[in-house]
Known about the structure:
Helix content is about 45%, strand content about 15%. By secondary structure, the protein is an alpha/beta fold. The chain starts with 7 loop residues before the first helix and ends in a 5-residue tail after the last helix. The relative contact order is 0.17. InterPro entries: BUG, Bug_dom1.
Amino acid sequence: MTVIVIPRRQAVRLIRRWTALVALSIAAAGAGAQAPYPSQPIKVVVPFPAGSLVDVLGRSIGEALTGTLKQPVVIDNKPGASTLLGAKIVAAAPPDGYTLLVPTVTTMSMAPQLVSRPGIDPLRELTPIARLGATNFFLSVHPSFPARTMKEWIAEVKAHPGKYSYASSGNGSPHHVFMELLKKQLGLDIVHVPYKGSSSSMPDLLSGKVDMAFLDGTLAIPNIKAGKLFTMGTSMARRSVLLPSAPTIAETVPGFDWSGWIGVAGPANMPAPVVNLLAEEIRKLQSTPHFAELLNKAAMEPTEPIPPAAMADFVRSEYARWGPAIRTSGATID
Length: 334
């Protein structure tokens, strides 16, 4: 057997060249295996029924992303468990950006602290991406109610403890928590009448069978403009762009500032480039007249677009803020 002896210097050069070639081969294989995002359809889970406000907004976002990302965006309605069913599905999906969620304040902040066994921790198991808009709530009364200002409303309710009733869309809903917070802050006694959704309470509210309710703009504004309801004030501390003439509750009750919101999220540990790409495409959409018209149709208040890191901070602060509010209200969901 012939043994070839290679000088040490030459051997070192050969080893280095071989190592570099192996590294390049591995990098090339990796690049070929990972196609640029997105390279396949994207599923957007909406944890509400088809036709709901969140569904309408989610579908519009999906249509816009389909156009800009050049991939189909498919909406998958998964209502249930106070929106946590859809959240769990997304949390269990691969964090590759191909399964997204349209969560609300209920999903990210309320339900996990209302349900005894939520089965998900949204702060750890979901990646906040963007905020789409806010939901203002109008404290609405039947026109026969003997008050036309928030100050008069407080005086009337205080003078007749237990006489008046309020409707909500269910135990633990924002409508319920907001009123219980107001009752607690002002020392009021108002009877709670829960319904299965705000729409189901409207016949009784419009007929005067129940006296008042916090309603989102889709239900409140048309009836206020038609004279079928009267608003005492809004839950947000800034006046509504949808009905600027309506005062805020905070103008009479300092510190009262509550709202709902809708956003976009994905599973935990999503790659930062994917998160940033999605956030940027949504930000572009939010700057268009089409999106402003969409929010107006959904009776939602516009919010300033914020980057994903700021959105994550917002979600954490909302979670921390809602915990004491829920405990104060005494609301629970079995």
